[in-house]
């Protein structure tokens, strides 16, 4: 496993609680849309064993052509050790990145694609939307449904409905409206459903989709194949 030490090149305050860290991209590091990465802070490998408290699995919120590894995360007033250190870092400070993998790459199968997210989980879908807008081939329509507080609105210049591109965006701030939207999408038995959020959020969405008859092969979550099976159990 190769560990890349890189510097923070830009910090963007998306909202009072959400920041995006743009990291310098090592020359030989590449990724596809929907990728995640392990982000580690200085000192994580100083001892005999890695300090797991200083390592997090994070989604990459940028695409390759942006020439930066983007990490978008929430920094609440009450924070873990990792988030406390991360929140105090400045441009020029070093972090480590390793183990890049994508479980959310766009599937171009001439179907409708639905992106279901909660809050800052929308950052995982930013690269998918950018790739779709650049090349919409073999995707009928792209729909994004996000549940967020009014103060958490992210990437509004990108997540804007574009009829000419067959791209539809809906943001709601109430659970009832959100799940009504999921049930409406689930009437499309051929659609591909991408879900990003907490484990509880994944379970609730999957339950609605499975009840509507959506096959597990059409439900995509950012989990390792073994963990994925724990969420998407085939019917007996």
Automatic annotation (TrEMBL):
InterPro entries in the record: FNR_nucleotide-bd, Riboflavin_synthase-like_b-brl
Domain of life assignment: Bacteria
Gene3D superfamilies: Nucleotide-binding domain of ferredoxin-NADP reductase (FNR) module, Translation factors
UniProt-recorded name of the protein: Dihydropteridine reductase
Organism: Enterococcus eurekensis
